[in-house]
User: Which sequence fits this backbone?
């Protein structure tokens, strides 16, 4: 797929939208300057040049790196959308990743279905390659796996890989040796209780329930019980509060709130669980707020005080407080050896290092906090109650 960016810069339209949302009982972020999102300031990180050591065979390079999870400070799980076959001979300007050639690999140029899942240490050295599962994507016509998540409440630390193109979710053992479960029907899109439609992400509740961001076709959040069975859903297609144009990312936050990234509507919607603490009941959610401001939001990390959103046009990180007020924006470099086109997913280790995956220029990168950075702008680990 190729992203299409559409945006209305009219402040009159923004004001009218805010009035309509207030009449509907929605809480709208105090941020109304959708053009600049000031303050914008220096990046609070240094990027390690060419951190990830290539492990592809000669003639191949990274594919679109779409998901990352920090299991420990020295065990980083990454999923990519296959590898990219390079020209023969390899051009002199090639510098270890397809983006150095100006390639946007999400368009499918040179894609091969190999080495989709791998594990790196903090030095960027590959530790494991789960290529025994590459066959799951053989013949896939599309970008393939979209995200990788692990529940912080799961003692087995199983890895959930969300396969957008095939409309399924795979659950692997923590060591990658076993495929434990497949949710959905491979290659079949539907909006019933046993199918998904271009699913994008998952997040986990402390009681074992799973919320599925489903997705780009179904525009809903599906609620699964701890056994992976459908027990409910919320959201629908539309523009009203609680409705979506897409459901691209999802994360838990404090006070039993869930944050949903609506990529195509360019906002974040917040939902509150109304029956938290009632053991044995299916979680129920109601709309709480909608945050305006992002251009094309992709992923979100929420901690006790703030939420950080990856965004593109241009590539950047936007920070909000949990009331939806914009706090800070910093831009990712668009040129040079550390350049980005799209930080599709990101995760933080216990030392505060940030790992991001570029879905279009194709590679993972590591960002280290600057000594002079304002600590409040550094991205915190994902909230776990």
Assistant:
């Amino acid at each position: 797929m190729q992203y299409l960016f559409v945006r209305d810069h009219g402040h009159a339209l923004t004001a009218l939208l805010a009035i309509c949302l207030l009449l509907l009982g929605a809480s709208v972020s105090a941020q109304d300057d959708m053009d600049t999102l000031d303050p914008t300031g220096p990046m609070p990180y240094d990027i390690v040049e060419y951190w990830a050591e290539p492990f592809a065979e000669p003639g191949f390079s990274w594919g679109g790196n779409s998901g990352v999870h920090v299991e420990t400070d020295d065990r980083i799980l990454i999923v990519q959308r296959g590898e990219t076959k390079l020209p023969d001979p390899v051009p002199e300007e090639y510098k270890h990743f397809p983006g150095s050639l100006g390639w946007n690999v999400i368009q499918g140029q040179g894609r091969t279905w190999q080495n989709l899942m791998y594990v790196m240490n903090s030095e960027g050295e590959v530790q494991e390659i789960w290529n025994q599962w590459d066959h799951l994507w053989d013949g896939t016509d599309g970008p393939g796996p979209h995200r990788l998540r692990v529940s912080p409440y799961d003692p087995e630390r199983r890895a959930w890989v969300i396969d957008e193109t095939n409309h399924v979710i795979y659950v692997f053992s923590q060591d990658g040796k076993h495929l434990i479960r497949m949710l959905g029907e491979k290659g079949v899109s539907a909006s019933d209780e046993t199918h998904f439609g271009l699913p994008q992400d998952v997040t986990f509740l402390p009681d074992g329930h799973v919320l599925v961001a489903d997705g780009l076709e179904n525009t809903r959040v599906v609620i699964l019980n701890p056994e992976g069975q459908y027990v409910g859903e919320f959201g629908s297609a539309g523009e009203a509060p609680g409705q979506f144009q897409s459901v691209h990312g999802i994360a838990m936050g404090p006070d039993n709130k869930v944050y949903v990234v609506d990529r195509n509507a360019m906002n974040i919607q917040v939902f509150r669980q109304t029956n938290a603490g009632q053991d044995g009941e299916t979680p129920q959610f109601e709309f709480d707020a909608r945050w305006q401001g992002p251009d094309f939001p992709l992923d979100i990390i929420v901690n006790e005080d703030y939420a950080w959103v990856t965004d593109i046009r241009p590539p950047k990180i936007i920070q909000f407080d949990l009331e939806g007020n914009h706090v800070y924006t910093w831009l990712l470099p668009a040129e040079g050896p550390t350049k980005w086109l799209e930080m599709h997913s990101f995760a933080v280790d216990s030392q505060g290092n940030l790992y991001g995956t570029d879905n279009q220029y194709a590679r993972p990168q590591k960002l280290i906090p600057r000594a002079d950075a304002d600590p409040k702008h550094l991205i915190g680990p994902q909230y776990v109650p």
The mean pLDDT is 91.
